[in-house]
Amino acid sequence: MDARQQLAAALEEVLAGKRDLAKLLDGLPFSDVLDNCMHLWHFASDGDIREKDVTYRNMQEDEMRKLIKLLRSDVPINTLRQVHFLGPSEIQMPP
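^ thats the sequence. predicted structure below, dont judge the formating
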């Protein structure tokens, strides 16, 4: 399994509450992929906001699912930077 696939699987575990994203970001050797997923820190630091605001939580979780789908597709790696977790990103999703 390549780094993109491994990160996608790990992010699914984050969404399921099985992994801590901050620890994941500090400990994984996916530097080339993570450099293009730089906005994951927004998700990691916004847990308190997601607890209070269901709309914000839903948006961020939808963006995480979008990022996971992109990681599993063959889009150029720099496309991953467009998922920013501050609002809905406008990315043409692969089929």
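The longest helix spans residues 54-71.
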